[in-house]
Amino acid sequence: MPRAFFLVLAVQSISTLADHAFLIVAIARVIELAGGGWLIPLLKISFTLFYVLLAPFVGPLADAFPKGRVMLLSNALKVAAMFFLLGGLDPVFAIGIAGLGAAMYAPAKYGLITELLPSEDLVRANGFFEGATVCAVIFGTVAGGVLVSPMLRGYRLPFEFVLTSAPPTALTAGMLILMLMHLLATLLSVGVADSGARYDRHSIHPVELVRRFLKENLILWRDPLGGLSMTVTTLLWGVGATLQLIVLRWSHHALGLRLEQAAYLQGVTALGVIGGAMLASRIVALGSAARLLPLGMLVGALIPVLLLVHSVYWAAALLVLVGALAGFFVVPMNALLQHRGCTLLTAGRSIAVQGFNENAGMLLMLAVYAVAIGFEVPLSALIMGFGVIVAVGMAVIFMAQPHSLSITESSIRVTVE
Fold this sequence. Notes:
Largest sheet: none
Order of helices and strands: HHHHHHHHHHHHHHHH
Shape: globular
Structural class: mainly alpha
Radius of gyration: 21 Å
Distance between the termini: 31 Å
Number of helices: 16
Strand content: under 5%
């Protein structure tokens, strides 16, 4: 792997870790302000919204400029978001600003991987990248737990004098540390080299960009392998984003854990995800990704088992197992989707299409969860329902897959006009 790949990997890890710590800090801030329970999924909706709204524009942006510059601007927006949160801005709006930066960042980081590496290295690279990313997601949640824990609540930092005009909060120290994490990712982005890839320029008129984006969506959805992998990743991302919040809530109700303790419990999932992702990167060929669909059904079947668990240790073991299966399953599917997207479109545009669909799925699932909270749907019913959605959804995808579809390396390289 080239050195530039590992620098992108470092920026991605720190930025993703800080993003997910931001969510926990924002949840703690909502609780501190005595906000309603429905505001918690609204935080994640606010963060995700720009991924969908700006999807037609962020791909061309990533392809029009050196992707390292785009990553720099994106991380700078996240620093600004933390500054506004420290200044007393409503956490729903503050996390939305961070979501704007993250939406711009996604096509740049994934597009840069496809520009830096040949296709035969994509599964291996995705094993590193997705393993590190999911690890950062989980440990970011753990870090968020530390930042809102009694250990830091009310702790005063030497440079807090610059924020004397901000409303008083026990979370100031944690928010300052989080801002420094985003600042570190911003500084590292300065060193990301230009890959040298250049693409044909197209009209930047908003209407033309939207039309082109819709056409690119159709190209990827109509491709047998692209459509298959997009369906799978869209379903899993949507359910996974909602389950993160559900597990935090379940940990409190079933195990009696506080927010920071529930965040620590999620950290153990990283062990399974990393193991599954790294194993997939070593033994699963790109052409074999579609054969792993039964693992998705198993992941869905294991989710309701949470309802039978009343011990922290058994909960940790179950989350490790689910993480391992998910990591082993998702990494090859994601690599297949990236490669088909890059073959049919361009690196930045294909990632924008992928991000739009996956985040639209997340918005839909989170909206359902927010409405369910409003109607006081029992937690057990929600856990059972999301498990059924995954298991049945994967079964339907598996049965709908054309038996005549040849999943071979040669079929993957075919370019669809």
